[in-house]
Design goal:
The complex is a heterodimer of chains A (292) and B (313). Helix content of chain A is 75%, strand content 0%. Chain A is mostly helical and 292 residues long. Chain A has a single domain (2-18, 73-283), classed as MetI-like fold, CATH 1.10.3720.10. Chain A is elongated and about 75 Å long. Chain B has 313 residues and is mainly alpha-helical. In chain B, helix 11 packs parallel to helix 12 (261-270). The chains are: A mainly alpha (292), B mainly alpha (313).
Chain lengths: 292, 313
Amino acid sequence: MKIYVKKALRSPGFLIWGILAVILILIPVFAPYIAPHDPIATDYASSMVSGNATYPFGTDQIGRCILSRLIWGGRTSLLIIFWVIAIIAILGILLGVLSGYLGGWVDMLITRLTDIVMAIPSTVFVIALVSVLGPGLHHTVLAMSLVGWTEYCRVTRALVLSVKENQYVQEARMGGLKEHQVILRVILPNIVPYLLVNLTQDIGAQLLTLSGLSLLGLSSQPPTPEWGFMLSEGRKFIQSAPWLIIYPGMVIVLHVVVFNLLGDSLRDILDPRYQKRSARRKELEKWQQEKV
Amino acid sequence: MKKYIIGRILFVIPIMLVLSFFTFSLSYLSPSDPVTLKYERMGAVPDKEQVEKLKEEMGLNDPLLVQYGSWLGRVLHGDLGESYYYGTTVWQQITKRVPNTLILTAATLLLTILLAVPLGVLCAVCQNRWVDYLLRFISFFGVSMPSFWVGMLLMYAFGVKLKLLPIMGSGDLKHLILPAVTLAFWMTSIYVRRVRGSMLEEMNQDYLTGGLALGYTKAHIIWTQVLPNSLLSVITMFGMSIGSLLGGATIVETIFEWQGVGKMAVEAISIKDFPIIQGYVLWMAIIYVTINLLVDLSYQILDPRIRLGGKNA
């Protein structure tokens, strides 16, 4: 652990992207103090104005401040992402560990389940589920979680399989540790660094999925500000008020870029095997890992 | 090999069963039943007795599995039910919309191949030179931007500002350009990197050095040996992308008002037209599962190295 911290502090990439990521998370947390206006307060006198001194990013069709809505919108978007990733990571890692460690029929059952869920086009699944349950943040989280866990399960299972046969795991077991202790104290600490990289890079991917769903009107409901939904509303006024779509899109891209680069720099630090590989090998693995 | 192929084909059965059950349960899960919905649509206040009678007639009170069985029987005969909104059968609606989606997907794939292969090769040949860096930089942003946002920006630039292309709508070639370019930009960004990576992998093989030693030019070896070999893996990856492409097409169709199946489904969501949504989910599932099957099988046939790997290649 100490080594990782030392390495992290010495890596300029990690420091830059890490600090930026923290800032991006803190902005919505302190939204009430940062946002210049109330995000749902309407000001009909100055509706649809482009950027000016009072409203830096302009206002929408009913005179709400775009900048404030973007700052508050982070609360909705990032909170959903947080819950989705927390749920799918815990579920996926749990199933992955069980599958990899226990083997046998448990493994077969879980692997088959993963295969089936992965055989369903995820966008379609989420659209179908949300359309039936009705739009709403809870349903969005539920739908995104139901399809999202498979990747974690697969990766965890593979990692557990590669760690399981190591000498130190055998020794720990012979030393009298119970099965769950072996998993918690020996196996998990060895695989968590790799999972952390996956987790960070997943933030960007989930954000893109979420914004797509909101664009279709399937997640947050008005007047709650949310980035994808702002885009969805803004596109009606594309002829007269392009700033309604430009700023929310830029905010989404900014988040995706920062978290992706943070994930890349994390991998350089946490994966010692990865560091020893040639630059070419790194390139190759990067594009092999992409899911799309 | 034979065992794998048979196993892989048989695996389609449980997947399709789960998928069809999921599709069926969509209407089962929905808070209101079809009878009440129908009455509401006609603007009539449903009479409780009447509703119960109709429900009994339609078999809506039967146990879940019985209902599923009869539904599956009807679907296998091509009867997906009737749309609440359009007043036609779901099958008619879908066959009307599918060609549009296929045109959009085909145009996107064509554009992606025409762009990604040459650019990827260029990147690999000029590895770590400015062209390479520039293209990788652009493709990095290409994958980080939501495709619908790219679409909106293109819409604004070419439709509103330059007035070169229609902003939205469906039908002719002019309407096709913007949605196809939007999707192709996203796909190309992914595939430039994949073609590049795959080329670099091949260029590192010994036969390149061997060929050079035999006196062939580097360009000759790259065109005749490296490129065909590296495209093999890229082509199969392409198959796998079709699923996400169809998903992405749903959103792009919606913002450009392109009258494909995705647009149809999104409209159906807002008016709670469940038979249409079911039809959409089934159609997507069948396409996706079929393509995945073909990709897995083609792997086996195209790339002999994988045959040795056995399971789940």
